[in-house]
Amino acid sequence: MRFGVKIRRLIRLLISLEKNSDVNGTIDDISRNVALRGANIWMLICAAILACIGLDLNSTAVIIGAMLISPLMSPILGIGLSIAIFDKILLKNAAKNLLLAIFLALLTSFIYFNISPFGEFTPELDARTTPTILDVCVAFFGGVAGIVAGSRKNKTNAVPGVAIATALMPPLCTAGFGLATMRLNVFLGAFYLFFINAFFISLATYLISILLKFPKKTLPGDEENATYKRIIIAFAILVTIPSAIILYSVLDKLRFDKNVKNFVNKEIRREERQPIQWDISSSANRKTLKVYTVGKAANGEESARLNEELKNYGLGELQLKIIQLNVSPDEFSRLTSNVETNIAEKIDLIQSIEEENKKSIEALQAQIEQLKEKTDPEKVFLKDILRLFPAIDSAEWSETATENDENTSNQVKILKLKFKNETSETLKKQVNERISRLAQIRFSEESVRLTEEKEENENEENAQPTN
User: Fold this and answer.
1) Which of 64, 291, 407, 455 has its CA 20 to 30 A from that of 152?
2) What is the pLDDT of residues 144-158, one digit of tens each?
3) Is the pTM of this model over 0.85?
4) How far apart are alpha carbons 397 and 272 in whole angstroms?
5) Claim to verify: residue 138 and residue 188 sit in the same structural domain
6) Looking at 188, 219, 250, which one is the last position of a domain?
């Protein structure tokens, strides 16, 4: 029994936060640094510019520098602390300054990416557009480390590490990139990452402040205190749900990519045939796995077997297309170590040719459609009667009908006419007669029936078929 008590005391001693804590000093320090004025504004703008340059040039070192000098952490800590100690004035100041910091960072990054000569969507930018529940963990535990380090009498070097881990400025600048380039998905993903970081750092500050029993500015009632806690818990769950969904989709994509890689390496790769590159293209409702290979070509029978084998790797929705590059097995065995670079250039060339061919086909199809518009007898006839008879508001061909006589069966083309409201019945009759004669000349071997489209969307027959 005594041994158990000693163990509990030892554990309590090891994890205790009260020892060497500076409660009043921590409150004063956070409250004093919440305001963004003078030097802090300059540091914020400089940090935003540095983060933008790092993201734009794909430079991790520059991004880390921006994280270290950014003063964004103080207002976020102030929000968590103010809720824990029920200090409404501190909460108001912290929230106001955080909104100001967000606005300045977004404005700076928006201006930078509008005038930047680069402006490419770099991997550093892409990495901050899909926040997952792992980012929630980073923000929360980073926030815990930050407030614990900040509450010590003897400050440690943990605070710079927290600034780097939680990464507040880069997501904001990525959101600015999304605004500057009109990419809503980039803006929403990056701003959500910033929001996650800010919220869970504040939550960690709130919890540690409660744990360390920071003195409250005002004493809330039990019911008010319970309401605050319920709101915080509910909000934390709501904020976390999208990140969990994103994590699931990310893991699903990783699993899919792994299955593709396993399929290519186990089923296609041979001593006499090597896959160099593969990618997935989508067209209509079909996805195609294109594998570029050198060496021995796969015959029709093997290609069919490989397509069936896709199902065993969970890739049944894909259709396999093996693209053989013009390199023989003997040539392949003599290639040097830079073969992949050389072949990659060939693949890029093939893909660019495919894109050009696709554009040419689309342009030819558009020209064909234009020629149809000009040469299709039915469409030309509609344009002519609309031009010749101003009383007609619209005209269109309906589906061809079949009329059965005693001994014959005739195909009849139906032309719907809609006259303008002020058109008299006499004029309608005259127009119908003239159109019937024109139809008989234009479509001598076919019958055409004219019908009038009424406002009640009913068709009334106005003329007999013309032959």
Assistant:
1) 64
2) 888 887 777 766 666
3) no
4) 61
5) yes
6) 219
